[in-house]
Specification:
Purple Acid Phosphatase, chain A, domain 2, homodimer, 7 helices, disordered N terminus, 7-stranded mixed β-sheet, Inactive purple acid phosphatase 16 (chains A, B), 6-stranded mixed β-sheet
Chain lengths: 376, 376
């Protein structure tokens, strides 16, 4: 099945998609997910760590989500990207006292959907974490009104325990995909489940939708109910997929996941961010994955891989070179989650001929900083 | 509804129970749960931290459960108690890769049930913890055969995610109660849910089943999906209940919960266990509840409260006085859970006239130690 979407007009693109589907031989070419416009670069906005749904029972909680939506709206209007990537921790499931966390997930993608911009999402460690009953509910003013909702996730109807089991990754992803024609997210190959958000998209040439300009790889770095790791099976899946659809490494590849790999620790600036690193905040230590199971070896040995983008550390926004590729942080976009650093989003800009990958950070107040070229 | 059971003959006791139910006026007297035998003390065995269900996919896991069952059988045959108390962490739910953890719970109570001995259970922090996907499943030899069982707890049948959501406390408790006539466990008052295992049992006089010799209070100290605490609401429930059924504090009261309260930290031996403390191992620090919300104040101000019994710390088995009552640890009974200290069980012995509460530890090899009288 083939899709073609850009950021101009979703409806006409659906027609184009149906047309392309009718002329393409299924299986011969990889999926077409986003096409460049002639004479224009292709822009991608990364929204990282939005943390929707925190403390919904307080005045503070919903206000954070309003603020996060405003950040997204401002950045999207400033940048008019062709694609948005939700880089994990879209919601704070361990803080969501309803069985269906998809309601908050849906709020988080709403500003992008409202502008007709396609998007793709990858899971972070908070997205399916089990609800943690707040200690303050046990003292005055006690448990808020939402206690024991009628749809509590209990097999004993009428005797619901206030025990919110959360929403599994698969269900979150299915709901996003099923209800949103603009979603490019995928449930990933079944043999990698419960690691769900593992898939590849391509950005295709303005001249020919069958010519890929870049492959965007999404990998699920776990967390929540799963170890914080990219497994050797995921690494193998990446390698086989890349060898299959890009055997001569002709097409540049860009990789997205939520939790930084251990390689980030090796390149992290000690204090101030100095060349060759580029960024504006370096306020905490890298909180890396639990183990390194082979993905970094594969990436550094593949000349087509240009950069990895991660979120997770709200107080870090740098890019640093690591061997022959770049390791970059996004920028904390949400008012949810720890940290009071000003909110923003990392932008990627791809040009086709010659291929280039540039990046900068766009702040909520419109300021732009930390410009870097990742293909020199 | 009234129950009367002792350890001699469950069937004849069921008849007695039906007879007593027919002659009693419901609501006038508290429930009768266990009756003393004339001329004999009443013995209670505490099984703490059995941790059934750990690593069921390895050779090691099921073997631990076999070993734990042997400990229980040996102690029960040596002591022939009138009641068994399962003092929490009956299972290690964060390690149980099935939706229905009740299967392992049922294994844990099996040795007691097989001997026709009544029991009561209280939850520990591991009993409803969410499954934690083991890191080792992501490397060779990979995920064991149980991957994606057909009854996975997913709303997408046919697309089960290997995401085991665990079994809520309410469901565990309902299954124990519904399937076991010998179970004295209760689901607790609804207004304390999701804190479930809050209830009181009584041990009644051999002369008159309507005269209580001791009240046994069970309190849920949380953990898993809930804070590790005894809330002010639970403390108030205890106080109101005690004032209602024992207004003049005539009847001694004994309290059971899983996680030691912060008061345990105050009385813990610094190194060797010396008088007035009594015990045999003092191998770790007290791992106390997160907060103290009033229960200890209530207990120390009630002259009828004689002692509190907790589990949780596998490397501690002492009793120490705290103001006018005793704070005691049980003894790690299970081969599951951390620690290699020899397994055993704390025994309580109640005499009626005069009332006395004695205790000792019975080891798996039959040895007895740490005898202490808790009513002098």
């Amino acid at each position: 099945m083939a899709k073609l979407l850009n950021h101009w007009n979703a409806l006409s693109l659906i027609n184009l998609y149906l047309y392309l589907q009718s002329i393409m031989t299924v299986g011969e070419t990889p999926e077409i997910n986003a096409q460049m416009r002639a004479g224009a670069p292709f822009k991608i906005v990364l929204f990282a760590d939005l943390h929707f749904g925190e403390s919904a029972w307080t005045d503070w909680g919903p206000l954070q989500d309003v603020n996060s939506s405003r950040v997204m709206s401002t950045v999207l209007d400033d940048e008019a990207p062709g694609l948005v990537i939700y880089l994990g921790d879209v919601i704070t499931a361990n803080n969501i006292a309803i069985a269906n966390a998809s309601l908050y997930w849906d709020q988080a993608i709403s500003p992008t959907r409202a502008r007709g911009i396609p998007w793709a999402s990858v899971f972070g460690n908070h997205d399916d974490a089990a609800f943690e009953w707040p200690l303050e509910w046990l003292s005055s003013p006690g448990i808020p009104q939402l206690r024991c909702p009628t749809e509590a996730n209990s097999s004993y109807s009428g005797e619901e325990e206030c025990d919110f089991r959360g929403t599994p990754h698969l269900e979150l992803m299915k709901k996003e995909i099923d209800h949103n024609v603009l979603s490019h997210s995928k449930k990933g190959p079944k043999d990698l489940w419960p690691s769900i958000s593992n898939y590849v998209l391509n950005v295709s040439s303005s001249h020919d939708p069958n010519i890929a300009v870049a492959y965007l790889y999404f990998l699920d770095s776990g967390g929540g109910s799963y170890p914080q790791v990219i497994s050797s099976e995921q690494a193998e899946w990446f390698l086989h997929k890349a060898q299959e659809i890009n055997p001569d490494s002709r097409v540049p590849e860009i990789v997205f996941w939520h939790i930084p790999s251990k390689a980030y620790e090796k390149v992290a600036p000690k204090s101030a961010i100095e060349r060759p690193c580029v960024g504006s905040i370096n306020k905490e230590s890298v909180a890396a994955q639990e183990a390194e199971m082979g993905i970094m070896d594969i990436l550094v040995n593949r000349s087509s891989v240009k950069a990895v983008f991660a979120g997770h550390n709200h107080g870090l926004d740098w890019c640093c070179p690591y061997q022959r590729l770049w390791l970059c942080y996004a920028r904390h976009s949400g008012y949810g989650g720890y940290g009071d650093w000003a909110r923003g989003a990392r932008i990627l800009e791809i040009t086709e001929k010659p291929f280039s990958l540039k990046s900068w950070i766009r702040m909520e107040d419109g300021a732009v900083h930390s410009q870097v070229t990742l293909t020199t």
